[in-house]
Amino acid sequence: MSVPVRVLVTGGAGFIGSHLVDLLLERPDTHVTVLDKLTYAGSLANLEGHGDEPRFRFFRGDVADPKIVGPLVAEHDRVLNAAAESFVDRSIADASDFVRSNVLGTHVVLEACRREGRPLLQLSTDEVYGSTEEGRFTEESPMRPNSPYAATKAGADLLCRAYHVTYGLPVTVVRGCNAFGPRQHPEKAIPTFVLAALGGRELPVYGEGRNRREWLFVTDFARAVATVLDHGEPGLAYNIGGGHEIENAELARWICRLSGAPESLVRFVADRPGHDLRYALDGGRLAALGFGPEVAFEDGLARTVAWYRRNATLGVPS
After folding, report:
1. What is the pLDDT of residue 1?
2. To bridge 36 with a disulfide, which of 13, 23, 253, 256 should be the other Cys (CB 3.0-4.6 Å)?
3. pLDDT value at position 40?
4. Which of 36, 62, 111, 127 does the annotation list as catalytic?
5. In the annotation, is 157 catalytic?
6. Catalytic site residue 214?
7. Which residue of the set 22, 62, 111, 149 is catalytic?
8. Could you give the CA distance from residue 130 to residue 278 in angstroms, rounded to a whole number?
9. Which residues contact 230 (CB under 8 A, 6 or more apart)?
10. Cβ distance 215 to 178 under 8 Å?
């Protein structure tokens, strides 16, 4: 009989975090505890399917509070830090919450893991690399963040590296492309476009709509994280790429077609400051661990539109 594995997931009531919890609890010997502050982007409704699961626990608390984080880390075998403020527009308006959650929160988790000797998997983003017009970022590409959000995530990545080099802490980092799917907060691009199209409202696209992003369905994203959790080498970063690259304007038009809305609803609005033109990741290091996407972009997008069609009246995904 295998020994049960206890995993602490910070930010587990959010979009990506809750899908990670879903996947981890499919493993019969894995016990999962979620720590989440339940700010506007986190919801217990994202975890409602696990309410009666004896291998699941939830604690409400701040990842930047060492009095909460320390005892929880001590009770677990592994830590997966998915707690973060992540919406670029909000970071431009006020970066203070991003510094607290993304930098200070990561430091608190790192310190607890160092004291208890627990391995840490840190969720990061492709945005730490900045923008590129051609080619793809590898894990050795320089970090050149262009938004306050990306800068705080880059700072967290550097802390993780330092704790590995200085203290020998087994830390692994994943830097993901854009995830999409059910339960994502409506402020993000795809939910914004889908809910607008379903409601017959204009779809706001920044600038000329030429900004390109790489999209990966959230269940594949969770599988990628789990692959690194199981097989990743401490001290390394792993890009989660392998998604579908598309311009924002074409993405909005595609969503109109799937939603049965006229493409004339697409409207170009004033661009945001420091808007990166293109993100693209080289996912070869992760592919070498055996990961490959299973959900085609068009299928994932259709599933996403169908989910929001069922939940559109809720205003915020449940």
Report:
1. 40
2. 13
3. 81
4. 127
5. no
6. no
7. 149
8. 8
9. none
10. yes
